[in-house]
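Duplicate of #3305? Posting structure anyway:
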């Protein structure tokens, strides 16, 4: 009881205890949601190093479901100034559904090498596609997901190799001509100023050769023929948070379930939004903890500092 009262009377110690509690409240659920979100869907997360055709080292995370059956694979690309960790909530949702995922850092981003040039980013996603084709014999189809800059790159890659890419999801990013891309989902947040509904509708008109198109509808063909397209606008998010928007993640999962497995998914539990909340709690706790540690270190280094005798004399006259 005395120790508790002593802690309460010492503001620094009280702050230290509170910051540690907040950090644990954030970190423990964060670890559980990352590695054990649903025990019936087990998977492994491991680092992966790749090298592009032009010799650039690309850092990636590989998410592999623990199961024997053949399944689809998805390559994930982040937005400008982002990295593969930003895309982890989306990658986790996909591996939970039984898809192998390779999420990359584009060159000069995250842990990858090289210097940034948007014209070479296609090579960064392509090397992940080639890794799946050459090393993972259980992969039956390959899809692409990109956010913002990554969306434009995914669309360009899917357009370049339509016979190798079975389905593509572009979140918050667009190119002017998407003709020939197999099974395309264009997803956006309602408050995303970078990609407007008008521009999306124009792209869909060009793809389908139809004049009367609407957001949220399936057009022209089917998944088996590889010419299906859909647009989805989430009413809740803007550009940066669209990659953790539960509605967009749900649509993304359903898109790959239909493209790869031929049917709608059931029993989908989206944990990305919850994971994001605990990420912020963890971050707040760590910032608070670091601030208090700085105060402790300051007291430690300066508590033995000798008083300047001149300053002591001046104090007498003040």
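Output from current build:
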């Amino acid at each position: 009881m005395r120790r508790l009262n002593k802690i309460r009377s010492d503001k620094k110690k009280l702050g230290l205890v509170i910051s540690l509690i907040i950090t644990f409240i954030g970190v423990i659920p964060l670890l559980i949601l990352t590695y054990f979100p649903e025990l019936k869907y087990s998977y492994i997360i491991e680092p992966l190093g790749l090298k592009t055709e032009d010799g650039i080292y690309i850092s990636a995370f590989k998410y592999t479901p623990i199961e024997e059956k053949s399944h689809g694979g998805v390559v994930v690309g982040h937005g400008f100034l982002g990295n593969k960790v930003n895309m982890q909530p989306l990658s986790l949702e996909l591996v939970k559904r039984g898809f192998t995922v390779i999420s990359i850092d584009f060159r000069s981003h995250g842990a990858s090498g090289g210097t940034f040039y948007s014209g070479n980013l296609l090579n960064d996603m392509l090397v992940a596609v080639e890794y799946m084709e050459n090393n993972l014999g259980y992969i039956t189809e390959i899809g692409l997901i990109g956010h913002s800059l990554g969306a434009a790159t995914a669309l360009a890659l899917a357009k370049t190799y339509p016979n190798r890419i079975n389905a593509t999801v572009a979140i918050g990013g667009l190119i002017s001509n998407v003709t020939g891309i197999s099974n395309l989902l264009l997803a956006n947040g309602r408050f995303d100023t970078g990609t407007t509904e008008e521009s999306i509708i124009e792209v869909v008109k060009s793809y389908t050769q139809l004049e009367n198109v609407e957001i949220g509808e399936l057009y022209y063909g089917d998944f088996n023929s590889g010419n299906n397209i859909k647009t989805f606008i989430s009413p809740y998010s803007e550009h940066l948070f669209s990659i953790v928007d539960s509605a967009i993640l749900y649509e993304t999962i359903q898109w790959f379930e239909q493209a790869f497995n031929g049917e709608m998914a059931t029993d989908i539990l989206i944990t990305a939004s919850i994971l994001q909340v605990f990420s912020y709690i963890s971050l707040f706790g760590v910032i608070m903890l670091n601030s208090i540690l700085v105060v402790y270190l300051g007291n430690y280094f300066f508590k033995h500092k000798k008083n300047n005798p001149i300053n002591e004399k001046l104090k007498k006259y003040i």
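Confirmed duplicate; merging threads. The mean pLDDT is 87. The beta strands are 43-51, 57-65, 71-77, 100-104, 139-147, 167-171, 184-189, 218-219, 229-234.
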